[in-house]
Design goal:
Shape: globular
Largest sheet: 5 strands, antiparallel
Order of helices and strands: HHEEEEE
Helix content: 10-25%
Strand content: 35-45%
Low-confidence stretches: 5-16
Number of domains: 1
């Protein structure tokens, strides 16, 4: 009886832990900037380490749903962030997706001191629940 139980541990796949949906909903609710955007340009470059990519998006704000910075429709903004590729079985929040050019999506953001924006809701930055 003990042998089948032990074998079960060897054949169970490693699962990636993720934050619960309520955590992402809370991040979206707290995001100071909430826009509908059209992605105009996507630039992906190597990051500081071999497992990182530096992402810069140029986006057109089509609708302002909430803005602490006073952003207006038809403004062009830069969204910058880093994506880290984690090994299989890594436990933690999923990566922020990289939207495609011409994609129309929502964006939960916060403004940086330099004027660019960064994701404010982790992997759910460009998705509504």
């Amino acid at each position: 009886m003990k042998l089948p139980v032990l074998m079960l541990f060897f054949f169970v796949p490693v699962l990636q832990a993720e934050l619960p949906p309520s955590a992402y909903e809370a991040m979206q609710a707290k995001a100071p900037e909430y826009f509908k955007v059209e992605i105009l340009r996507v630039d992906v470059a190597p990051g500081e380490t071999p497992i990182q990519q530096r992402v810069q998006l140029v986006a057109l704000i089509s609708q302002v749903l909430r803005s602490a910075s006073g952003a207006k429709p038809n403004e062009i903004i830069n969204i910058v962030y880093t994506v880290t590729e984690h090994p299989k079985g890594w436990a933690g929040p999923g990566p922020i997706p990289i939207p495609r050019e011409k994609e129309r999506t929502v964006a939960y953001l916060k403004k940086l001191e330099v004027g660019d924006f960064e994701p404010a809701a982790g992997r759910m930055t460009f998705t509504n629940f």
